[in-house]
Each structure stands twice: as C-alpha cells, then as structure tokens.
Amino acid sequence: MKPVKVGICGLGTVGGGTFNVLQRNAEEIARRAGRAIEVTHIATRAPNPACDVGDSVQVCDDALALASNPDIDIIVELIGGYDMALKIVMEAIANGKHVVTANKALIAVHGNEIFAAAREKGVMVAYEASVAGGIPIIKALREGLAANRVQWVAGIINGTGNFILTEMRDKGRTFDDVLAEAQALGYAEADPTFDVEGIDAAHKLTILASIAFGIPLQFDKAYTEGITKLTTADVNYAEAFGYRIKHLGIARRTEQGVELRVHPTLIPEDRLLANVHGVMNAVMVNGDAVGSTLYYGAGAGAEPTASAVVADIIDVARAVSCDPDTRVPHLAFRSEALSDLPVLPVGEVETAYYLRLHAQDRPGVLARVASILSERGINIESIMQKDVEEQDGLVPIIILTHRVREQRMNDAIAAMEALDEVSSPLMRIRVEQLN
Ligand SMILES: NC(=O)C1=CN([C@@H]2O[C@H](COP(=O)(O)OP(=O)(O)OC[C@H]3O[C@@H](n4cnc5c(N)ncnc54)[C@H](O)[C@@H]3O)[C@@H](O)[C@H]2O)C=CC1
Ligand SMILES: N[C@@H](CC=O)C(=O)O
Ligand code: NA
User: Fold this and answer.
1) pLDDT grade, residue 388 (50/70/90)?
2) Which terminus of the chain, N or C, has fewer Cβ atoms within 10 Å?
3) ACT domain: which residues (predicted)?
4) d(CA 138, ligand 1 centre) in Å
C-alpha cells in the first residue's frame, strides 16, 4: 500500500514529540497501520531543537498552505488557539483531508461546526490528544464503553493544575514558582490562565460529556472555577477531616439534565483520584453495566501527548478506505441521534460542602452560623473551631455539610456573610464522595 502522507502544523512541544515518535517507531507503526506513515511537510514559526527534521521533509511557515496541498493526506494541527487553527482545519476538510488535532479549545468551542463539515466531506477529525494527553480516554468512552449508559465522568484533567497543587502540598512551594516550572516543562497552555482558572479542564470536560452522554458540545454552559483562591490552610483543614483537595471536572447525568462543572473538590483521601499526583491525570467513568472504571496516565508533555496524536494518525490511516458511515461517529453517537438533554445551571447542582469562615471569638457566633444552616434544611456533618487567631483577631471555623442544592447554599452563605461577627467572603469548596 502507498504510504500515508502527513503534514504537521506546529512543531512545538507536541508537534516535536509527534515527529520524533513517528520517526523512532516508524517500522513498528507501519506494521500496525498496514502502510508507512511519512511526514512530508511541516509548517512552523520556529525550529524545534529537539527535532532533527532532515532534508526529506519540506518545512515552511505557512500552515494554511499545507491544508490545501494536494500531496498531503492527513493534516495534524498542533498550533493551538482558535483562529488560525480553525482556518487550517476547515480548509483541510474542504480539501478532503483528514485531520488529527490535540486542540481541546478548538474542539470544545467549534467542534459541532467542524464535525458537521467533516461529515459532509466524508473525512475524519480525530482528537484523542485533546483530553488527558496520553490517556486513551476518548477511545475508551467512544468504543470500549459503548455498551453502557454512562452515569458520570469525573477526572483530574489538567496536568499543570495538578502539578501545582501537588508541589504546593508536598514541598511547600509557591504557586508562581511551580507554574513557571510547568511552563518550562511544556505542560502549560500558551495562556496559563487557561490551566489555573479551569478553562482548559472545562474544554476537556465539555468533550468528555458529549461523548459520554451523546449531547452536542456546549462549552458555554460549563461552570468553571480555578485553583487560584485555594490556600495551604484549606489543604490542611481538608486533611484533618480525611480529605484531599483536587481540581476536578465532573459531568453527571440526572433526571433533569447534565451537570457540567470544573472546580476544586474535597474527596476522601482513600479514593484513587485523591492519590493522583504531579502532571498525571486520571479519569473515572461510571457506566450502568461496567460500574466504575479508572484511566490514568500523563496528561501533558511532549511524548505522552504525541502517543495519542500518533495513535489517531494510525487509526485514520487504517480507516481511510472505509465507508464513512461505518466509522465511529465523531461524538460517539450518530449525529442525528444526539440528545437535547439540557446542561443544568450550577445552582441546580447538589453537592456536600466544606466552608471556612473567620469569626470573632464570642459566645453565640457558632450557634448563629448553625441556625442559618438548619433554617435552610442544611445538615452539618462536622464542625471544627480553631482557637488560633488567623485574620485580624478572627478565628477560623470549618464546617462540612451534607448534600444540598447549590442555590440553597448560596442563600445560606449570603446570610452568614451578613453577620457582623463573620468576615466576608467565606471560602466554599464542594465535596464529592465519588462512589
Ligand atoms: N503541551 C502539552 O502537554 C499539550 C498540548 N496540547 C495541545 O496541543 C497544541 C499544541 O500545544 P504545544 O505543542 O504545547 O504548543 P507550543 O507553543 O509548544 O507549539 C506551537 C507551535 O505552533 C507553531 N505555530 C504557531 N502559530 C503558527 C502558525 N500560524 N503557523 C505555523 N506555525 C505556527 C509555533 O511555532 C510552535 O512551534 C495546543 O492546542 C495544546 O492545547 C494538548 C495536550 C497536551
Ligand atoms: N495545559 C494542559 C496540556 C494538556 O492538555 C495541561 O496542563 O493539562
Ligand atoms: Na487522550
């Protein structure tokens, strides 16, 4: 069979890793794909010192030109961002080329339009690397778990954020110091606020929810909260109650609709997800037939991510000659069978809560706080008042509650913050048992 010709757009962390893995494992990859996979063109703005591109590859700086080059079969988009990446992908599809991308921002925000264009042209758009880097979670959800009605998906899906939380907790390093290291290691997004404010995780969760529940991509409806407000004190208090704080993406199907939320979360310290450290990611999927399953691996970095990109290239190379109607649908469910199950506003989500407030050390304060909660039907699981003064003579009170709908908790928090003896704002972190 003729070799498959690949054009790589972007030779940065992931592009460089992809080129190197394709070269190093070329023989083994050809044995799996049934034909050789050749990188014939690369478009990049800067050379990558980690790649020896040689003379046989044509290198240019015009990525859009690759998308219309008739000599290329598969365009691998590894530039990132929305604008140029969208142009390249749509141009490639218009020219009948298959596309492989690691760009979760692009898929989460423009995926519906991209997949519609790809269906029209009968081409594939593969995006395994876009969620949880090297973990084959898209494959697992779209194919391995296809028998199941998926109930929920919960995961640590941003390597940079988990690396920061781990280093802060284990080594007492500062947030900014660890973030700078994550950037130097190539883990972080071009704009690292995407990592630390939960936007990157929300992109990935949007994709996971679509393929788990068969709904269109709806990034604009995801609730997103980052890790920048977490303090070492919260990490320590959580541990005193037997919990760890992880930045989770959670998508859950309920009778009313789909919860789609990214936020710091307390989880019991003995859960597997509580023990995922550093740049590692893990995604737990609960299906009605299989129960809970867990997928673990490196969520970022050159070769772990390249592992997913190259697997997609191999899949595309194998399926090129298939009838497009027999291929796995882009969003796992056939496009005409996607459901209109709504994404729920976060006010309708029900979780337990960790609350940390600072109050004057006077008799009756604790009772007033407790009655605000009980008047709203919110049960207290545990309460801890520290006798150390932390903030302007105020002492911390930490409360764990039972499960309650978020809008009711918002009302209780507003009432607590209105008390003269309590400083505002108080800290709230959602708690999940994940069982
Ligand atoms: N770094 C990681 O660990 C992971 C990254 N991703 C995604 O992979 C994509 C690429 O990320 P990185 O490799 O980290 O980025 P990077 O910044 O290291 O590389 C981007 C490359 O694109 C090139 N480029 C940018 N605009 C261009 C243009 N208009 N024409 C030609 N070349 C252009 C740059 O010269 C650079 O070589 C992004 O969508 C990112 O979200 C996904 C999973 C993991
Ligand atoms: N910036 C992302 C890269 C992979 O998707 C992360 O840190 O997880
Ligand atoms: Na993946």
Assistant:
1) confident
2) C
3) 354-430
4) 20
Residue 390 has pLDDT above 70, yes or no: no
What element of type H or E holds 163?
Answer: helix 159-171
Q: 152 and 62: one domain?
A: no
User: Are 250 and 431 within 8 A, CB to CB?
Assistant: no
pLDDT at position 386: 79
Same domain, 262 and 250: yes
Region 81-110 average pLDDT:
98
Per-residue model confidence (pLDDT) at position 170: 93
Question: In sequence order, what E strands does 367-425 have?
Answer: 380-385, 395-401, 404-405
Euclidean distance between the first and final Cα of the chain, in Å? 49
Residue 394's Cβ-side half-sphere holds a number of Cα atoms within 13 Å equal to 17
Q: What is the CATH number of the domain that holds 233?
A: 3.30.360.10
Evaluate whether 169 touches 235 at the Cβ level (below 8 Å).
yes
Do the bridges between strand 280-287 and strand 291-298 make them parallel or antiparallel, or are there none, so unpaired? antiparallel
pLDDT value at residue 332: 98
In one letter, which amino acid is 55? D
Give yes or no for a contact between 335 and 47, defined as CB atoms under 8 angstroms apart.
no
CA of 332 to the centre of ligand 2 (A): 23
Containing structural domain, residue 369: 349-431
> Would the pLDDT of 389 be above 90?
no
The one catalytic residue among 97, 104, 204, 246: 204
The reply to whether 221 belongs to the active site is no
Does ligand 1 lie within 6 Å of residue 184's CB atom? no
Ligand closest to the CA atom of residue 278: 2
ipTM over 0.90: yes
